[in-house]
Amino acid sequence: MRTAIAIAIALVLLSCAYLLPIYIMVITSLKSIEEVTMGNYLVPTLKPQFSNYVEVLFGSSRFRTQMMPRLLNSVIISFSVTALSAFFGGLSGYYLSRSRSTMVRILFVLVGIALYLPYQAIIIPLVTIVARFNGLLASLQLQSSLLAYMGLIISYLVLNLPLASVLMGTFFLSVPRELEEAAEVDGASKIQTFFQIVTPVSMPAYVSVAIIIFTQVWNEFFLALSLATPTTQTVQVVMAEAKGTTLVVYNLQMAAALIAVLVPLLFFLLLGRYFIRGILAGALKG
Description:
The chain is mainly alpha-helical. The chain contains 13 helices and no strands.
C-alpha cells in the first residue's frame, strides 16, 4: 500500500513538472503584452487575447512573418517524407529481414551503423545536390510547383530511410514465417504476400515509424535553415525568427510555439495507441 502511494505521488509530481511549461505557454499566449510585462507567469488572464493567434498565423506589425504558409510547408514536407519513408522502409526492411544472404546481413548491420552518423557530416554534398536540383527546376520553369519541395523531401528521405528500414526490419523478424509460407502454398507471389499478409499485420510498426519520422522531420531545424528557399521555409525557421531583435513579444512567441507543437501532438494522439503496440511488438513473442 505504501509503495503504491509513493508511486502515485511520484507520478503526480513528474506530471506536474512536465505539464508546467505547457501550462505557462498556453496562458502566456492568451495574455496582452502589458500582462506579460508584469510577470506573474502562473496567473491566467481574465481577458484572453485570441487575436494573438491571428497575428501569428497571418502576420501583423508586431509579428511580421506569416506563419500559415510556413505551417503548410511543414505539413507538406513532413507528411511526404513520412509516407515515403514508411513505404520504402517497409520494402527494404522486409528484404533485409527475410534474405539469408551474408551480404544482406552485412548490409543490415551497415544500415544500422549509418543511423549513428551525424547528418551534419554530409551537409555540404546535400547543399550541392539541392542547389543543382533547384537550378534544374528553375531552368525548366517548374520552381513554383510542388516540385520546389523535392530538394528538402529528398534530403530528409535520405536521412530517415535507414531508420525506417532498421525499425521495420526488426519488426518483421518477429512476424511468424508460417503466415508467408501458408500464403505461398495458396499460390500468392512475394509481392502479394507482402502487401496482403505481412503489411496488415505490421500496421502498428508502420504507425510507430511514421510517428517517429514525422516528429523528427517536423522539429528539424538545421537542414530547413540551410536548404529551404524563401518559399519553402518550414515552421521551425519561423520560430527562430520570431524572437525579434529589439522587442521581445513573449505572448506572440508562445502562440507561435503552441501552433508549432499542435500538429505533431494531434498526429501522435490520433495514432498513439498503435504506437504503443508497435513499440511492444515482438517483446512478448514466445
